[in-house]
Each structure stands twice: as structure tokens, then as C-alpha cells.
Amino acid sequence: MRSFDYSRATAVGEAVATVAADPAAAFLAGGTTQVDLMKDGVLAPARLVDITRLPLRYVHHGQDAVHVGALTSMEELAADPVVAQRLPVMREALLLGASVQLRNMATMGGNLLQRTRCRYFRDLTCPCNKREPGTGCAALQGVHRMHAVLGTSEHCIATHASDVAVALVALDAVVHVQGPEGERAIPLTDFYLLPREEPNRENVLRHGELITSIEVPLLPANARSVYLKVRDRTSYEFALSSAAVALVVRDGVIREARVGLGGVATVPWRAGGAEDVLRGARAGAEVFQSAAQAAVQGAIPHRDNAFKIELAKRTVVRALQTVSDKAS
Amino acid sequence: MTVVERGNLVGVAVDRVDGPLKAAGAARYPSDFMPDDLAHAVLVQSTIAAGRIRRIETGPARAAPGVLTVITHENTPRLGRGPDPVFAPPPPLQDDRILHHGQHIAVVVAETPEEATAAARLVEVDYERTEPLLDLDDPRAEQVHDPGARDLSRGNARRALASAQVLIDVTYSTAAETNNPMGLFTTVATWDGDALTVHDSTQWPVFVRATLAAAFGVPQDGIRVLAPFVGGAFGSGLRVWPHVVLAALAARQVDRPVKLVLNRAQMFTSVGYRPPTVQRLRIGATHTGELVALEHEGVEPVAMEDDYAESLTTASALLYACPDVSARLRQVRLNVACPTWMRGPGEGPGVHALECALDELADRIGVDPLDLRLRNYSEVNPQTGKPWTTNALRECYERGAERFGWSRRNPEPRSTRDGRMLVGYGMASAFYHYVQNPCQVRATLFGDGSAYVRSAATDIGTGTYTVMTQVAAEVLGLPVDRVRFDLGDTEMPPATRQGGSGLTAALGSAVHNACRELVRSVLDLVRDDAHSALRGCGPDDVSVDDGRIIRTDDPSRGETFAEILARRGLAELTADGSSERREDLDGEPGVFSAKFAEVHVDPDLGVVRVVRVVAAVDGARILNEKTATSQIIGGTVGGIGMALLERTESDPGTGRIANATFGDYLVPVCADVPHVDVVFVGERDAANPIGVKGIAEIAIVGVAPAIANAVFHATGRRIRSLPITLEKLL
């Protein structure tokens, strides 16, 4: 039986120091992904540092942003009145992202770090470059209907599973981190790493660095936003495709646009190309189509998931239609 | 005897008698049994689909903390096979060959489940791989024609097709599905010399006993199998799977009680599944929709050295009047685990293909789909020409269509919208063959006027405890709370398996007969009793009300069970009853239904949601409207899963199951289940003394095609493969 050390940290600095000092140590927050992976033998930390008692559970309202403590639960954040009013896209992504049981357990910091649902990653009998670098990618030839078409490499096509992270990359959220060498702030759009040569490296965090908070800039008061999630069943299921969209439309012209894609990419996907198409254009079916086309630029299909390219486009179009209908 | 006709207890919505026990968590399922000194077994399974084990290294596992032993083919004795190969697979660990991915190759026994699980990961296997046969169309694979001898034909379908005015020639495929009961299958085995006690997740305790006796060469009467509660099975508990034998083997080897619990992934590889099918339908018809010929050819996989047969195509010969019919099944031997019965086996996927093909015919010739069924309605079994014992299919159509509002259907596909959503109406007929096997029951009346009735049957969540209590209470003229019905123990009289919707008829008839025999035995006590008002009465001369036997010719005269037993100085009185299928019937029994579904389809995103279902069911007499309605709703949920979600996927080239978790194998969640309107039609059936047909299978049959046909009606797109996932509609 695999045993591990467990300790409960009482201060952020202590937690960081403990994990930083032990290459086999990991933080434990809500545990909703981590414990499953430990049971399956995918993760085998020798030491778990429980951070759930750290004072990182808050939602602070600034003038231009909300500051979300990393231990804030998904449910708590979704219940925040400012979030409901000014960041509906994030609220919807939270509510569609997990069952209420999970939303009560899962933390926002942990959500950003959740691991892929790729079955090959989670099955020790299969090769997986993410789990064991250099062993290969079983998903390429395996069952990969759920897998990514954007941001893939020949080494990994695993989909990033988070919904709320898709909204957060679209919102230009910033991740605040404390590590052994101090604090730093990382734009979420720079946080995730594409699985180029090293699919096992999923983000820029260094060992021992702890997410302490997430800063989410508020949308303009006149923005309209939506999170649209398309999936096989109505609940308890990950996205086949999702879109986080926010628009500011004035006099029929799109002044500001944010587009994020989920369920189709190896990381929460900011569709900057789509935003470029939208910004300054007149809202309407034609430009939405063009934006959708731009959003999936560079997509690479595999045997079972080519439909995701078309589905992602339609998801973007529907989301844009929805916010544009709201706006008018 | 008039008691059985009175029936005031039957048909009403009696709450489940085991409901409070289950709600309180006090019902004991197999995994709840923890004998003293219990050890735990965990299976190791092959990670290749074909080849042999060159070497299996168990040293590190044996050296791991808490490990008691590791069992492989190298240290397993010869094990016998159970008496009926249909229900007893070949015994495990008998040689070094690998026949499918996920085959059991070792058992690790340890002090705790965690230690056994950890040690199981340490077993190292060196395989000699051969190329597995995994595809139905692999030319190297052995073909099995007409497995189980269920093919049906009449006339000359091929010739009649050639001259038909209208020809539909379509191929449908259905996905492999895994039964996935909530309860993880568990076996707890305890030996005492050659005597063995087993708690097991089974649908047939007496056959578990027989199989274990054969496996270990010990007498059956020393083996006791218990299954008072089983956490579902949907057919996967009908066979005595190898893990059951391995649990008993492990217990024998470590000389301690052993518990073996399959994990969820192992539930996908170890206890069967619904085979995927490919079905070609050729239907010949006139321009007005009279069927002139029907050919239904099904193909499905079966295991290399184990067998399973199902009635995939037979309903195509039985549902409609059609002169020339050929309904056949062919199996292909592949390196796959053996498929098994899953709710609505055979007819579930088979009727799907038939009813979708008929919908295609209706669309082709411009006839309403329901009219098409009525035009080809058969008053008799069209294969034998004999009448049905009862058949209310026509009433299923009428009542179902009326409740559904079928007449509002615009025949034009893609013509109806609700906001943005495309709206579709679809319907399908359904049939399931009648099953009844021999069954025995013992009934005891106590001096206080209460009764105890028992049989070694199971209740896998269907309501058997409840409806059997009702049947016994009815025949004995007792309130249900004065009757205790018990099951799930081979010390009780042998019962047949709980499968094919056949238990209620078999067990219910035996309960009926045993209780009737008990009343007769009571009357026998007073046959010559000058003090009894019932002197000389036989069972047909009396009725029983609230424990009091009353003369039919003079209801003022009678006496209670308790009075009679007390006068004779008896603490209790026992009678046995049995039942078997009637061979003297004028007609043939069959179960019928019509299903109607409305779907909404997102025209851009392809998302299908079922918004309502009407299920009109001819289950003959319904013993308990509440539990029966639950059965139909549950089967409808299974049908929604079959239509839209469920699919057991295997890796190309390796045969590894790729989605063996509840996160990856999707079943409907509550939000996917709409209102299900259940209506029961029909009348008592003469097939058995309690007048029932059995409704578990018919509940799911016809649901998927009604949904698929509704999807066509909504979109104009004919999706010929299940499940209908959104990409097929983009």
C-alpha cells in the first residue's frame, strides 16, 4: 500500500516552504481531482500539505476587479452578487462546470490546476506522455472523440477540462502566486503551456509555488456575456465544446469582444483571432460566422473528433447570437 | 376458490415492503457481510486481448505488506464447470492463454482491500502476444450460425422481396452497452471443511450453488448461497462469472473467509455486456404498406470459447402479419469478453432496427407510422398461426396514441418547431417473448394467524418482495402486514433465475399454489371436524377474509386460521407449492407494448433532448401499479440511454475498454429524463394462475426506436447507428 505524509499548513509561507523543500510533496485543497488520481495511482505524492485552513477563502470587490482567494469554493464564487451582475459569463461557467456537490468542495485555485479527463492519462496500463514522458500517446490511435483539436501536438491531444478557466482566460484574469522566491502575478493567458514537447508540464508554476488568488477584471457595465456549454447529457458531463463570450455593442458596432473556447483545446483557449474579427465590426450573422472561423484557425482533427471543429464554430456563433440578442 | 378472484390487494399501489429497510441503510447487500477473520481478494486482469502468459512474476506482490497469497494459473487446481454452459462460463485460471483484454489472470489475497489493490499492481506479466481478432468483419474469424436455434422463417423471403412493389434495404447498428448496476458485484466466501457459505450478487442463487459444487467437486447440499439484497444487475447476475469461483478458491487457499468486490472498471470486463449489433433489414411492401416480405439478418460478436445467444431478430417474425419472413442471427468469434443478457436482451436492439426500418417504409410510401403498424396487425402469432393467450397491442396503440396526441403529428419531417428547437414525434411497437421456468415455494401459517412464505429467488430491485407478499396475502386472505415473504437463500425451496421478465410469473404462481395448498391443508384439518363450520369444505367452497375462512354458501359461517390451528394444538402448518410453464394452453403468451416519444433537437448544435414519453404496456395483470410503473420508467430511462448516450467503447487494435468509468460511460442523469406517462392495458393472461406476463424487458424495448424515429421526424435525418450523438446531426 502506498502511504504518504500528511500535514496541515497554518500559514501560506509555511505551506510553500514545506512543499518547496520536498520534490515529492504536493498541496492538497479540495482534492476533487487529486484524490481520484491518487487512488488510481496516477499521482503518488510522498507528502501532502493540506492548505484548506489557510486564509485564502474570500471574494474581495475592487473598483475594477474581483479578487478571489484561491481557496474560495466554486459555489461561493458563483453566489457572489458582483459576479452575478458584472461577470455573468464566469458565473454560468461555474454553475455549468460541476454538480453542486463538487462546487462545494472544489476550490478556484484547484480548478485552474485540474487535470485532464483523458482516460489514457488516468489508466496506468496505457502509454501517456503527460503521465510518463516519452512513453507515447495512446489517445492518438485510441478513442478520442472527447479530445482536443486546438493546441495539440503529436505528443498529446488531451483536452483541458475546466469550464470556468475558459471564462477566466477570456476575462484576462491574473493569477497571483507565492513561491519560495516571493510573489508574482501571471496573466492566465500566459499561465498554461501547450503540450509541445513536454505534455507533462501544464503550466508555468514552479515546484512549491502556490496560487493565492485570482484577479478577475470586471467587464464593462454595458457588456453582455454568456457561457454556452454543449455536451452529450444535460448535467454531470464535460463539454464537447463550449464558448465564453462577452461583447460590448454600441450603435450596432462591436466595441469590445472576448471569446474563449472550451472542450476543444489542450488549454483554456483564448480565441484572439475571433476577437480581432469582431472588434469594430457590425454585429450580425456574417461577422459571427467569420469570427467562428477565425476561432478554430489551426485546428487539427483526428479520426473521431473532426466534428468538434464544426461544433466549436457553431457554439461560438450561437453564443455570439445570444449576447447580441441580449444587447439589442 | 374465490379468494384469488377477489383481488382487492392486487393491482393497488402497495409501498415496497423492503422500502424502510433500504431507506434506513439496514438492507444488507453482499458487500455488507463481514465475517470474522475476513481477507480480501483483488483481481489482476490481462492487458492484452490475445496470446499467452510467458511468465507471471508474483514475488514482489507476495512480499508486499499484508499479502496472504497470489493465485495464478500456475497454482490453481483443475476446476469443474457448472452444469449448464449457458449460465456457467468456463472456469478461470486453467491455462496460460489470453482470450480477451481484461481476462482474470491472478488473484491477490491480503488482509485489507487496500493492501490487495496495491499488491495487485505489483504482479508483472510477460506476454507472448498474438494479433487479436476484434472486428466483426475480420475474415479470419469463426462464424456461428443460428446460436441458440432461434432463427425463424416462413415462406420465401428472398423471392418475395425480389417482386415487392416497394423495397426498404437498410443496415442499422447498435452499440455495445454495459449493464452497470449501481452495486459492485461482490462475493463473500467462507469454507468450513467442504461446506461453503457464499454471499453473492446474483440473480440465481441455486445455480451459483450448483456451479460452485461442480467447480470444487463438493456436494451441493453443503453449499449455502445468500443474496437477500442485490444492488441491481440488469441481467449481468444471471451467470456465475469466474470471479465468483475465484473468491471461493481464494477462501479455500487461505483457509479464511474472503471477500472479492469488482471495481467499476472490472464491472465492464467481468460480468458481460450487451453485444454491439449490425442488422440488415430488407422489407418488401405494397404501395399501400402491406408487408409482403421481411428479411432481418443480425450479426454480433461472441467470445472465443464461451457462448451467449439472444433473440435478436425473432420479433421481426412475430410482430406483424407478413407472409414471407426470414429472421436470422450470426455471431462472430472474437477476442472479446463474453456478452450477456442486458435488459431487453435480443429484442432491445432487434426491435430497434425493425421499428426504424418500418418508419422508413412509412415515410417512403407516405403512410402514417401508426397506420402502417395497424395495416399489418396480426391477430394471431403469425409464425405459428396460433392465437396469443392475450394480446392488447391494438389497445396499446390506441391508448398510447391518444395520451400522446399522435393525431397532432404533422407528417412532414422537419415541419414542427418550438421556438428554435425542431420538434419530432416518433413511435414504435414492442414485443418480448414470454419466459417461465420451474419454481418452488414453501408457505407456513402460524398459530397467531400470520404467514411466512419463502423461496430461493432474488429481488434485484424490481419489487419481488413486495408483489410476492401481495400474492400470498391475497390467496391467504390476510392483510399484507400479516405476511412475510423472504427470499435469497438456497436453504429455501429452489427458485428459478430472475431474468427475462420471467420471475414474477414463475415465483408468483408457485406462491399462489403454495398458499392455495396451505388453505387446503387447513381445511383438511377440519374436514371431519363436527365442531367446525367448515366441515367438509374444499378450497373452492370458501373464501378467506382477514384470516377468517368463510363458507361461500353461507358467509355467516366460518372460522379463523388461528382458531383451527389452536384447536388442533398446532403451532404452525406448512405447505409447498410449485409452478411450471403450462404446455396445455390454447394460445401462446407474449408481451406487447407501444412507445411514443417527443424529442427536441437543436438544429445548429445537434443536441437531442427527449421531452416526453408515453409507454402503453400490455403486461396482462399488474400486481402492483406503483412498482410496475417504476419498472416501466426505469426501462424507459434505459431506452433513452440506449438511444442517445450509452456506448461501451474499445480501443482499436487492443480491445481495451476505453470508457470503463461512470464519468466516461454515460447513462442518463435525472435532467435527461422527462415525464414518462405509463399506461397499462390488457387483461389477465391464462399463461399462469396469477394472470401476469412480466414487464421488466418490455419496459425498454421500443424506447430507442421511438426516439430515433422522433429524431427523424424532427430533423429529416435518418441516423442508423446508436447512440444518436450530436455529431451525427451536425
Characterize the overall form of chain B. Answer: globular
**What does the overall shape of chain A look like?**
globular
> How many E strands of chain B?
28
CA distance, first residue to last residue of chain A: 61 Å
The strands making up the biggest β-sheet of chain B line up spatially as 3-5-1-13-10-11-12
Structural class of chain B: alpha+beta
Low-confidence stretches of chain A: none
Q: Tell me the fraction of residues in β-strands of chain B, as a range.
A: 25-35%
* Largest pleated sheet of chain B: 7 strands, mixed
Summarize the structure in words.
The complex is a heterodimer of chains A (328) and B (730). With 328 residues, chain A is of the alpha+beta class. Chain A has helices at residues 12-21, 34-39, 74-78, 81-86, 88-97, 100-105, 108-112, 119-122, 164-170, 188-191, 272-278, 285-295, 307-327; strands at 5-8, 25-28, 47-50, 59-61, 65-69, 174-179, 182-187, 210-217, 224-230, 241-250, 253-262, 269-270. In chain A, the strands form three sheets. Chain A has a five-stranded antiparallel sheet. In chain A, helix 5 (88-97) packs antiparallel against helix 9 (164-170) and helix 11 (272-278) packs antiparallel against helix 12. The longest helix of chain A has 21 residues, at 307-327. The radius of gyration of chain A is 19 Å and the shape is globular. Chain A starts with a strand and ends with a helix. A seven-stranded mixed sheet of chain B has the order 3-5-1-13-10-11-12, sandwiched between helices. Chain B contains 17 helices and 28 strands. By secondary structure, chain B is an alpha+beta fold. Chains A and B meet through helix 13 of A and helix 4 of B.
Question: What is the gist of this entry?
Answer:
The complex is a heterodimer of chains A (328) and B (730). Chain A has 328 residues and is of the alpha+beta class. Helices cover 31% and strands 21% of the residues of chain A.
